[in-house]
Amino acid sequence: MYEQMTNILLQVLNRAASILFNNIVPRIAVEGSTATTGTVPVTTVYTALIVLAGLGIVFGVALAIVAAKFVVKVDPKVEKVRETLPGANCGACGFAGCMGYAEAVVGNPDVAVHMCAPGKSAVAEKIAEITGKKAEKVEPKIARVFCQGGNSLSQRKFIYTGVQDCTAAVLAAGGDKSCEYGCLGYGTCMRACPFGAITMSADNLPLISLEKCTACGKCVAACPKQVIELAHTSKAVVISCHSRDKGVDVKKKCQVGCIACGICVRTCPVDAIKIDNNLARIDHSKCIVCGLCVKKCPTSAIHDYIPVRPKAYIDPEKCVGIDVCEKVCPVNAISGEIRSLHVVNQEKCIGCRMCESRCPKKAITMVESSSAAAAQAKPGKAKEPVSVS
Amino acid sequence: MWQHVLTIFIASALINNFVFSRYLGLCIFFGVTKRMETAVGMSFTFTAVMLVEAVLNWFIWTYVMVPYHLGFLKIVIFIGTVAAFVQAADTMMKKVAPALYYKLGIYLALIVTNCIILAVPLINADENYSLFESMALAVGSGLGFSLALIIMASIREKLELADVPKSFQGLPISFVLTGLIALAFLGFSGMITL
User: Fold this and answer.
1) A33, A59, A62 ranked by CB distance to B72: nearest
2) What is the CATH number of the domain that holds A165?
3) Residue A365: alpha-carbon gap to chain centroid
4) Neighbours of B18 (CB within 10 A)
């Protein structure tokens, strides 16, 4: 058996050698090299094969020895962390891709676990579990669009027919929108978003999906007008305008721009709003998201991102008739005599939550409007209030 | 004989500079010159690999390939030697100097198929250089390449601050710069003829 195989192998080798010798080698030898001349003895072919095989074996053994001697153990934690990360390689963490961050967070004790913006707190907790570091609470962020002047609400300087992209449009005299601070609406941010979180509304404004946005900041960098900013998701009241034009000019260009009238500044119960350069800005560290300014803004430039605000509801069993809530209510929605049950006028209540924290008896809860109305209608059989955070 | 060795050394470093006069090794040249740190690291690795390579290949050439008339196999064998040595160096570096290993990353693997690395033993073989002449060519070429890398890296670090038109940013402007430096190096041509 063994001899048979050797014989076959030798025959094959002989055949291959004769082909090489007759056809291929002479050509290479004649054309290719100075060391050999036109005719090649058959031994050359054998030596070539032997030498190549020998070199191969020598190199192979040498490499095997080196690989065994200089073996590097990879920390299995790195691989675990990398699997936990979303793998978008967005670079929001400040490292070269997800792998870079995984290595840094495992290897360097100073690298925090909450650097991954797309992963949010869920990923931070998992990384903390793997690395044994402490997870700090991450307040989730989202990209906010600081412009509400869509096609129907704003003026255009000229008709732009070029490439349908904001970066291209901005080259033509700063874009076709009259307001030089506004969103051009050609969807550069939508194309920049790696998570498909941005869609363009019918009015040519970007809509950012609360679920899909990871606050990676790609759209912020892509927007040539700097209309998009990252903000804390919980701070849902935003002055959606960047215009630093004077009020009169804003009015001419856009129906929903900030005219710096100062009503919101006076309205704000916590002095969180300031006007700077003809533009009102909310200091989000002070803002309590009461939404009063949203109602008062004459041009509706302030946007409330909470779709339906739950309204205040006073539990008749707990209410002892202290009038703190009545005094604190900014819209006079609460009425009632002292030492008797107070009632919230559901139509007036704007869901600012100011009374909720003030009531010493904790009789006020925030309830979705439909169930609150039901509860008010049948005070005797009040349903368990649905608390909405 | 030593005079000839010195001549080969200077000629390969300046006059026949691989990047600026022979236009070889541009892949690594553009790849690692974004930062001075990687450029210097690459220079050392490259020169060291080149020297060891030239010596290894000289022995194989003189004691194996010439006696057995295997000159027609030189490209295959040289590439094989390079690949084996670089792979070994790669493994060793990962253990000994991991920081450098991560910086040079894929460029280390690129050395295997780099044309300068292959050109040096091929020139040595074609010119039938002695061992010392081969080493002179290897070190000279290595230093020449290092010179090119460091010149380019220092310019590109300055370039970061320059106001380059958007369509020229990155690789295009680097090619333009390389062309200009190559023009300057052309001034050396003809000073030494080998």
Assistant:
1) A33
2) 3.30.70.20
3) 33
4) 24
Question: pLDDT (tens digit, 9 = 90+) per residue, A163-221?
Answer: 888 988 888 888 888 888 989 999 899 988 888 889 998 888 999 988 888 888 889 98
Out of A35, A67, A71, closest to residue B71 by CB: A35
Which chain A residues touch B90 with a CB distance below 8 Å? none
Contacts 24+ apart (CB under 8 A), A183-191: A183/A145, A183/A147, A183/A149, A183/A150, A183/A223, A183/A225, A183/A227, A184/A224, A184/A225, A185/A150, A185/A151, A188/A222, A188/A223, A188/A224, A189/A219, A189/A222, A189/A223, A189/A228, A191/A165, A191/A222
Distances from the Cα of A106 to the Cα of A87, A102, A109, A124, B98, angstroms: 17, 6, 7, 13, 16
A154 shares its domain with A288: yes
Average per-residue pLDDT for chain A: 81
Predicted TM-score (pTM) of this structure = 0.50
Q: Which residues pair with A280 in a beta bridge?
A: A275
CA distance A27 to A19: 12
Within 10 Å of residue A367's Cβ, how many Cβ atoms?
26
Number of domains in chain A: 4
Domain end position, chosen among A69, A93, A121? A69
Are A59 and B80 an interchain contact pair (Cβ–Cβ within 8 Å)? yes
pLDDT tens column, B96-146: 877 777 766 556 776 777 888 889 999 999 888 999 999 999 999 999 999
The distance between the two most distant Cα atoms of chain B, rounded to a whole number of Å, is 59
- Across the interface, of A32, A35, A59, the residue whose CB is closest to B84 is A59
Contact B125, B134 (CB under 8 A): no
Most A CBs within 10 Å, among B57, B61, B63, B70, to test the A interface? B70
Is position A121 within any domain? yes
CB contact under 8 A, A63 and B87: yes
Asked if B126's CB is within 8 angstroms of A34's CB, the reply is yes
